[in-house]
Amino acid sequence: MRSSNSRPSRVGVNPFMHELKFTLTEKIQIGLMSVTVFPVRLLLVSFFMLLAWPFAFTASLRRSDYVVEPQSWWRRFADLCLRVIMRALWFCGGFHWIKVKGERAPSSEVPILTAAPHSSYFDAIPVTMNMCSIVAKLESRSIPVWGTLISYIRPVFVFRSDQDSRRKTVQEIKRRAQSGGEWPQIMIFPEGTCTNRSGLIFFKAGAFIPGLPVQPVVLRYPNKLDTVTWTWQGPGAFKILWLTLCQPHNPMEIEYLPIYTPSSDERGNPGLFANNVRKLMAKALELPLTDLSFDDREISLSHGPLSIHDYSSLLEFHQLVCRLGLRAGRTDAVLEEQARRARKLQGDALSLEDFAQFLNLPVTDTLAQVHSLFHQRDGEIDTRHFVIALSTVHRPLKSMETLKLSFKMYESEENGDVLKEELAAILEIMLGVKEVELSGLVLALGGSETAKITYDELNHFIEQQPNFVHDYLQFENHPRKLCVDRPKSYNGRSHNKDD
Q1: CA 426, CA 420: separation in Å to the nearest integer?
Q2: Quick check: is 453 in a domain?
Q3: Transmembrane ranges (predicted)?
Q4: Closest CA to 327 of 394, 401, 386, 387
């Protein structure tokens, strides 16, 4: 599998990973702060959160979820108290002063604020400063204390158990945005997830579907030691809280950019609208654009003995199949059926038109791009390669299931084995690499150059070799050297290169 020459990959640093490294001085500082300042700050933060609860609870009583009532004097008083209490809470957490650039437009002029990059639960600071609404999952309403505070700001709740949730959420955002300022502003984080601020990932279209002006809001945390980032792979929620409260000061910058009014083309194309706003915000942040989305996170974080080594081509493939509508409804059963049909072809190569018929799709430019990603034989591809890639991006955390599915398409009926060349083709696609060399694996298994292998044999071998890819495979641009001078049978002993 290869990357398209028409669109270079711009992945760069994985935005879903965050690794903290401390100097000796920082370790000493954290140790001292942990037994002195941290307990006091945690106590004060907890106190102010509990203090905010009765105001939020009282102000939310008998309030409709669908109609905005006139603000009575006591509700305005509760709102003022909550703003003061929440600012005191953040102050006690080390956010002593928060630099604000630009000016926030009123809700009557701009109903939606788009904030990025979204990298931490501390991004709630601008929300509490302005008491904006947010988009939140319904389950957050049941969180003790914090759930009441969330309910107070009148969020757009997402019912994840409802299959029609996305459409209903977009409809509610649109309804509020078109109220002429009657509802509070909605602050939306269009990335849809937390990243490490190394770049801006693709924006979801929800904030841009109404086709109304938006005000971009960029967030910065200039601390030398980044303790606030909370993403998919890295420190957990409590560790982030502990480390942040152990910093003498946590600076934050909030910048309100000029209002962005969509053109007629952008109003009719929310994706174009979202991408143009993303470019504007990336320029203000001096960050690169990253060709990743929320749906790509598992691909970029794959793990296990056959984890994806280079995910650039697989990410491009994934984005294309999403555009074809092949991601929706993709189940293991559907993959099994496609694998069965691909096996029946016995490796027969398919032209673009035959490939379209195989998928029951019309011939389009997007389908042609998918077809071109695979190795061509006179303009035709082996459909088994497509099924392997589809399984890899559908369940990147279950690589052994993809390997088993792949064997079903290639194995002989007599012995259930596959040729070395066929296994190399399978692994090239699963790992996202080129020209896999299996001589190390063949040596380790005691086979010949024309060796064959069954799934059970390979599965058992991999179970005994946690560093299987590192120790037994070689491929183009592999950063490590292959070690085959002392092949070992799969007997469970540790493999020591220094013996």
Answers
A1: 10
A2: no
A3: 30-57
A4: 394
Conformation bin of residue 192: beta by default, left when phi > 0, alpha when psi is -120 to 50: left
Reference 276, options 259, 258, 296, 262; nearest CA is: 262
Q: What domain count does the chain have?
A: 2
- pLDDT-derived band at 484 (thresholds 50, 70, 90) equals very low
450 vs 167, which has greater pLDDT? 167
Largest CA distance in the chain: 86
Straight-line distance from the first to the last Cα atom of the chain, in angstroms, rounded to the nearest whole number: 37
What is the value of pTM for the model shown? Answer: 0.81
3-state secondary structure of 57: helix
Structural contact between residues 402 and 393, judged by C-beta atoms closer than 8 angstroms: no
The pLDDT of residue 121: 93
Cβ neighbours for 58, distance < 8 A, ≥ 6 positions apart = 74, 78
- The answer to whether 407 and 378 have CB atoms below 8 angstroms apart is no
Whether 94 is covered by a domain: the verdict is: yes
If you search the block for the tokens 């706003």, which residue do you land on? 277
Rounded to the nearest 10 degrees, what angle do helices 312-323 and 383-394 cross at?
Answer: 90
Query: Rounded to whole angstroms, how far apart are CA atoms 98 and 175?
Result: 32
Q: What is the pLDDT of residues 118-137, one digit of tens each?
A: 999 999 999 999 999 999 88
Q: Which two tokens stand for residue 310?
A: 């280079």
H helices present in 202-311, as ranges: 237-245, 264-268, 270-285, 297-300
Could you tell me if residue 426 is inside a domain? yes
Domain end position, chosen among 291, 318, 339: 291
- From residue 331, how far is each of 334, 394, 405 by CA, in Å? 5, 8, 13
Return the DSSP state at 179. T
Q: Taking the CA atoms of the chain, what radius of gyration do you get in angstroms?
A: 27
Cβ within 8 Å of residue 489, ≥6 positions away: 444, 445, 446
Closest CA to 314 of 437, 306, 359: 306
Q: Do both 355 and 308 map to the same domain? A: yes
Range of the domain at 369: 297-435
**DSSP strand pairing (135-137 vs 186-188):** unpaired
Find the angle CA(133)-CA(136)-CA(138) to the nearest 5 degrees. 125
φ, ψ of residue 71 in degrees (nearest 5): -75, 110
* Residue 308 and residue 279 share a domain: no
The strand pair at 252-256 and 98-101 is best described as: parallel
pLDDT in tens, 439-474: 888 778 776 555 788 888 888 888 888 788 888 887
Residues 228 and 108 occupy one common structural domain? yes
**Is 14 contained in some domain?**
no
Which residues, including other chains, have CB under 8 Å from residue 318's CB and lie 6 or more apart? Answer: 295, 296, 299, 327, 393
| Spatial CA neighbour of 248 closest among 99, 29, 43 | 29
